[in-house]
Amino acid sequence: MLGELGEEAKVLAGGQSLIPLMKLRLARPSALVDLNHIPRTAYIETQNGHVRIGAMTRHADIEDSPAAACIPILHDCAAGIADAQVRNMGTIGGSVAEADPHGDWAPVLMALGAEVECIGPGGARTVPVSQFIKDAFSTVLGPADLVREIRVPNAGPRSAGAYVAFKRCAPVYPTASAAVEVKMLDDDFCQDAKVVLGSVGLTPVVVAEAASALRGQAITPHAIRRAAEAAMSAADPQADLRGSVEYKRLLVGVLTERALLAALARARGERVEVAHEYAGR
Ligand SMILES: Cc1cc2nc3c(=O)[nH]c(=O)nc-3n(C[C@H](O)[C@H](O)[C@H](O)COP(=O)(O)OP(=O)(O)OC[C@H]3O[C@@H](n4cnc5c(N)ncnc54)[C@H](O)[C@@H]3O)c2cc1C
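Above: query sequence and flavin-adenine dinucleotide SMILES. Below: predicted holo structure tokens.
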């Protein structure tokens, strides 16, 4: 249908980004193709630690899934998006396809090394999330392409992640966020790490220097501080109603440190609850 309707047609998933844009007349699609009635598009399947999430899976279903219980960074993200109404309708496929610089899923999926399976007239292809998102609100999808599935690889033993986002109140996008994934050799020694920031660039910011500050190192307060400082330097925030550039940089440092501490504790086998941070709490 997308091929027949042409470039001005859009697919409708949860409608939590597209419908508000249409109400504001910022989007005026010539036709909507509703994905909600296509069977087998909403699922979460786990096999040998790999997780496959259908594009039409709602944030709320991921929040409550056994997969999110095993990979708590998925829960950190899904449980904090907006409010229950948005989480009950919004989908992970719609979120990555929208490529909103303030979206919660993209930094988390990049920290996890996830891939997007796309389908279209040219067949199916699998693209790492880091390459799928080209720019703000821009992806590799062609006009007749769809996101079919998100694939999260098995991170292996002694691996864990955490995601912390700061929001002014529940149903708004983050001011800044940090997704961290660590792989430990033992309780103290880090084998590998990924730090990805959200809302402080046109696309999620991968902080290579923060990973270098942790990789192959004994994890001390000094190493954590160096990683947080690297994140502050790598952030490229814009001043807006959420705060100044300086404020957002400071926030990035705090969020990176909190996410790192939670990820490290989880990698040691501790049960750590992580929730989004809200102003004034
Ligand atoms: C009040 C409010 C607060 C919000 N706060 C947050 C927040 O804090 N964090 C956050 O991450 N998000 C937030 N959102 C957005 C929410 O997460 C959306 O669910 C998400 O951005 C888009 O998913 P959707 O399923 O609703 O997509 P839709 O709105 O239906 O579609 C979005 C775009 O993606 C395209 N699309 C959808 N599915 C596919 C697919 N499978 N393949 C190809 N293209 C597709 C559509 O054509 C459209 O262009 C908020 C939304 C609202 C209304």
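The mean pLDDT is 96.
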